[in-house]
Amino acid sequence: xxxIRRYLKFVKPYRLQIIGTIIIGILKFAxxxxxxLLIKFVLDDVIGNDTLTKGEKTDKLFWVMGIMxxxxxxFRPPIxxxxxxxxxxxxxxxLYDIRDRLFSHMQRxxxxxxxxxxxxxxxxxxxxxxxxxxxxxxxGLMNLWLDVxxxxxxxxxxFTMDVQLTLVSLILxxxxxxxxxxxxxxxxxxxxxxxxxxxxxxxxxxERVAGISVIKSFAIEDYEQTQFDRQNKNFLTKALEHTSWNxxxxxxxxxxxxxxxxxxxxxxxxxVLQGSLTIGEMAAFIAYIDRLYNPLRRLVNSSTTLTQxxxxxxxxxxxxxxxxxxxxxxxxxELQKVHGDISFKNVSFSYxxxxxxxLKSLNIEVEKG
Length: 369
What we know:
By secondary structure, the protein is mostly helical. It is 79% helix and 5% strand. It has one domain: ABC transporter transmembrane region fold, CATH 1.20.1560. The longest helix has 55 residues, at 54-108.
């Protein structure tokens, strides 16, 4: 969770935009929750209302449909637009800040770091991994809360209609929570390994494209093909391990979310036959089950993408934590006005502390100009 805390420092300057986006999003997700109530109203209060004449039923139907059309055609589109726009704007600004910080950090790393690290690896972390963290902002900080809000609002409306049937609707929630915790606990490690393997492929390609003239000059295409196959096969293995575990998670969780509607249909049908529930209420409940469990299915998708996002965060901050080989001494004196002459007196140098000395007792005078 350390990576998430560090990432939130980049998010903090945009917290008001995120809160605003969530509020707009709650409106966006709340409006469709009117549909099941509309179904109940049309079935029970219009079609099934024997006290009204055919003309009165028609007028009542036209009035309620007119109001709904205004809500869905006039109000909902701009709400949807601004939710999407502000979410992407905020996420893009956060990624801009992270890449800016990484580039500054990258320039301060020494030659030693770059001699031991593939250029493609650095590029992969700055481009792919930073881009993957965008999911954490859009999904983790925004959509996740919107889905939770949708579930809470839908459950609250259902409780006002029938407590017993609502409890039947929610009976599988604990099994869902346990499944998510069990399956997605191991997914972060698998996702990180997959990202590392992909970075290996990208690094290899970057170096070979840059050195293609050397490869052709020495006619070593077959050797390079073998080397690339090894990198590509490693990525395939990691990707399939990730896919297998992910598929198991979706199979179990989606089975749980598919059983819930069957329970509601069976129990509500029994209540209608007993006379304790109207046809309209049954239809509304079946519609609400879809509104209740669709966010849960999205939460499963979110768990997958969030795991990928957090694994990418780990890689980003791992790069950001690379130490600088060259640091100023605590008592370093700032260089003021100089004449421009350079003098080396008995200078020796090696790239590694215990490595071979490449400059030995160098003496040189370089005059200005």
